[in-house]
# Entry
Amino acid sequence: MADMQNIRTGRHCVFALHAHLVFVTKYRHKVFTDRHLTRLEEIMRAVCEDFEVELVEFNGENNHVHLLVNFPPKVALSKLVNSLKGVSSRRMRQEFPDLVRHYYRANKLWSGSYFAGSVGGAPLSVVKQYIEQQNRPL
# Structure
């Protein structure tokens, strides 16, 4: 089962939900420097706070970023992603006009797609075995 330090509680539930998110820049342009990545992390942390999501880890390279988020069940991951990408795109283009030259046609920073993978806890095989071994009432 989940590590006790990663378990969070809501009003009616106890949960440990983590997702690995990857966002890629439009056209895979290599646009980010350390300065951009530092600001992106700040913006994305603020968006996560608005959703009551914990940004556990953030890192990136010149054309993509990785996020590890701990989110409550009430949060639709797709809505979180749309907000993270939308807010960060808008703010980054406002604060760093030099980024705009890479996107003169499409006024977007990010590719339309993204990666989201569930992470943490026991491997599926272990969870499956655990459930199989539960006693059934006779």
